[in-house]
User: Fold these one by one.
Assistant:
Number 1:
Amino acid sequence: MTRTSLIASRIIFIIISLSLLPGSNALSANQEVITDDGREVLLRDDGTWEFRSTDRFANTKDGLRIRLKDDGSWQYVGNAPLTSKQQIRTTDLDIKLRKVVIETHEKKVQKNTRVKSQTVFYLNLELSPLAKSNISINENDISRVKVKDNEGKDYPVLSIQPETTILKPGSDTKVAVRVDGAPQWWKSVKSMEIIFKPGIFGLQAPVTLSQSVDDIDKKKVDGFGENVHR
């Protein structure tokens, strides 16, 4: 079996396996993937596929992505992809969850004390110098952000507060996402997730970052929304 036939067989096997998964929507839309040997492949939603080019991709030791062209030349194309619970790095954009803070405000109402909490996700965004365009960060684009805990409870997003609204190639910025509420200790919540849907930050696919509840900072405040970029 030739190398090309072996790669083709692997791709067909993956497609068939995914199609057999119960309730699977994995191929509900066209997808671009990279094969084991670094070649671009388009997976169509009708179950067919094709190579996008004869170029291959590789990662350098210093964390950069390079394209190996069929004519023997090569070029840098951006960041080497990286995925962890607190960091996602695409070719163009690096999103890092720096910390999560639960802010608690206590207010006296007659003889009672009312306690209100909000949770703030502090993020760093860094755009690769090789990115081809700026990224716009819309303060009102909260519909593309979702926050939930591992028990499935949703926390309404109140605001997205960027340090700058335009991120240029080779630059970075800080963003704070504020949500209403906080995990309740008696619910045995173990983690919180922040999900960025396609469209925000120029993302083409959803991005999920998470933080263990044990690692979330807690702070009493006199009011909400202060020093969001700290």
Number 2:
Amino acid sequence: MPHISPVSQDDASQETKDVYADFARRMLFALPPNFIKTQGHSATVARATWDLVRGVLVSGQIPRWIKEMMFVAISKERNCHYCVAAHLACCRMLGVNLDLLNSLVRDINSIPDPKTRDMILFAVKCSRAPQSLTEADYEMLRQHGLKQSEIMEVVAMSALAVYANIIADATAMEADALFDML
């Protein structure tokens, strides 16, 4: 049972409804998920979170499907069941191959593409212990051809996933039924 219940569209302020609508449209959901609706109690928090998600996850040079995979791996590592379910659904919605998702969930090291695998491993390490990142970790990404701007996106994705995990876990958010349909 959630500690903070989602705010329905009917009960939301107009500012919050606007966030819900933009979130659902840009994230390609039919309806806004519990993640944003739980934050609907504070239009300020919902807007700020959506701005962050839009800027880091939805935009940028790294394809969204890879960022979604980073989100799944970080959330699995941190034991955030809501975020694992949500971002696996996003991966499926974006057409990520089922075999690749199985590798992601079972053992990241079994991901066949070394660039994708190493980006995800870097993101997980960054989310777990950012002070432990070494020059060799960054050099590995550079050897795959990542530019500084792309490496910064991986670091930002790590931070975003941790932020989202805290919100989902602190509120005891329940996974949306729509995740099973995606």
Number 3:
Amino acid sequence: MPIRPKKLCTYPGCNILVDGSKSRCAVHKTEHNKYKKNKNEWATWYSTTRWRKARQQYLALHPLCVECLKDNRLITADVVDHIVDHKGNHELFWDMNNWQALCIKHHNSKTARTNLNK
């Protein structure tokens, strides 16, 4: 059976080589698993009927991406983003003053920056 070549850990900025069948080095796999465990506790909030209705109503009232508007571009918002990461805080999760409408591009960019800073 052929051996897969080593590749870089998929954690942003990590330069450690891992076996071809793995995606992260030992350090970042542990960090990722901690994040996933904590995330799973509140990730179900996004699949509730209450959230789906709140999201739909918010996007109806705020149909354009706030970041695109800053550049005078009219792009439809796809995501209700939490401005300050709620990290499982139920009150912060439901605080509409902590919400903003973003397009996928800006939401993914913000999420990537946030994950780099962890």
Number 4:
Amino acid sequence: MRRLGVVFSSRVDSIPEPTTSAETTTNPPSTSPAASGQPADASTGQSSQVVQNLLAERKARLDAHKKEQEAQAKAARQADAQVRKEALEATPDAQKSADMKYALMQKKRQQEARDERARILKRVEDDKAERKNREAQRKARSLAKDESQTAATAPTSIGTSSANQSNMCAVQVRLFDGTTIRSRFPADTTIHDVVRPWVDENIGADIPYNFKHVLTPLPNKNIAVSEEEKSLRSQGLTPSATLIIVPVQGAISAYGM
């Protein structure tokens, strides 16, 4: 051993030092198969065998986990299909009832919409009719006012041929309070039949009175009660005439004077 140590020492001293650190790090004596005293082929074979065993074990675990997941998914699908099947088989009446309820609701909504549309159309027609009626009344009042004004401004001629041929008589009457009312009557009617009831309706009071015919610029003419039975034409009230109501002398106190 001493001799071998001397030999090795002399040989180590004669070996030159490495030129670069890369060479030393590339082949470290402690990791080489020759320094460990084992053959390189045996170590490599053992390492590859270990790796293969690990890969096989991992593959087995993955395959088992995959099969388990597939089995669970298949069971879940089967359970879901069974639930849907049972639901469809168990609730046909409920589905039918729901469909009928929905159809009734739709029908009710449609009927309400039709009723609302009919109500709106009726209201529009009523508004149109009301506007038309108001317009007709306005035109009638305007026409009556124009005719009354024409009759009031037109001269009253007694015994003329135009008056005898007129079929209508425009009459305006001055009331107790100074207001004037106007209307048109057939020339063949009488004061007693048409004029006096019309005046009574507008006075609204039970006051005896007589009529006086205004004949400007001629003197006014009192119309006796017996003359009220004569036609308007025969009394010369056509085509227009202005009358004044005069309270009866015995009823002056009741009139409020």
